[in-house]
């Protein structure tokens, strides 16, 4: 675990809506990031939402990071920023099929017109 002055949450943090199988099993987070989210997530969420008051400089900095005033630097800041981006942003979906239909070539159109 990283050394930090950010308080651990009084209960473990889980997001059963966006990550129902857990953070690490989603494939988006490492085991270390899952541990950070689980132990510090309640505090981070409380600081971001304003429910908790920042008690030290590291927590004040985290609030500025979540408000996009500063870039994330510490492992906790980067992990929380990654979490809010994935949990609140649109999930990318890749498919093997394209949406656009291929254009009919002029040769194909001319051949079909001649057959009629």
TrEMBL record:
Name of one Pfam family that matches: DUF413
Protein name in UniProt: Macrodomain Ori protein
Annotated coiled-coil segments of the chain: none
Family assignment from sequence similarity: Belongs to the MaoP family.
Skewed-composition ranges (Acidic residues): 105-116
NCBIfam families: PRK11027.1-2
InterPro entries cross-referenced by the UniProt entry: DUF413
Signal peptide: none
Region (Disordered): 96-116
């Amino acid at each position: 675990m990283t050394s930090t002055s950010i308080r651990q949450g009084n209960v473990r943090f889980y997001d059963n809506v966006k990550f129902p199988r857990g953070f690490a099993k989603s494939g988006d987070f490492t085991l270390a990031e899952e541990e950070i989210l689980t132990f510090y997530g309640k505090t981070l969420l409380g600081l971001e939402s304003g429910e908790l008051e920042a008690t030290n400089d590291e927590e004040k900095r985290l609030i500025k990071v979540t408000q996009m005033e500063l870039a994330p630097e510490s492992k906790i800041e980067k992990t929380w920023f990654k979490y809010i981006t994935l949990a609140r942003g649109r999930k990318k979906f890749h498919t093997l099929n394209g949406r656009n239909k291929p254009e009919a070539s002029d040769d194909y159109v001319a051949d079909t017109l001649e057959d009629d």
